[in-house]
Design goal:
Elements lengths: L1 H21 L4 H15 L8 H24 L25 H20 L2 H12 L4 H8 L3 H19 L1
Amino acid sequence: MHARYGTCVASIARRRLGPRLRARVETVDLTQEAWAAVACEAPADAFADEHEFLSWIAGVVERRALREARHWSRQCRKSEREVAGKDPATRPDGRAQRPSQIVLREETASRAMVALAELASTDRRVIVLRVLLGLSWSDVAVTLGIAEECAQMRYTRARRRLAALMR
């Protein structure tokens, strides 16, 4: 469901947040909250069609965006009253990943593993040798028993097939 409607829900979230609130709230966080609501709150067979589902999830996103807007509009949250953190312990770590980024990475890895399993064995083998094992083109060619240029072409075609399966 996420693969089919993910970009649509993200677009709804971007529009509902607006530019000022997007400076404070990540669109992907709001989107992840909406998907969590789908998993926990969505009635099993209440949606007659796609339009009803999208209307329902738009309402969920709207309520979450309003909650964020209220949070950031409170007097204690006014941007002119905020003081930049001088203590390094209070500053956010720019390298840290958000929970939504971790979930998205894991979901993508899971989809890649499923798609990799669906590939033909020769395609899967060339991708494993090159990407997962990190072998050079000459080592990949020797392992497969083909010319180096052929190994590169086989890898390119296998990546295209893998990308098509992941869509």
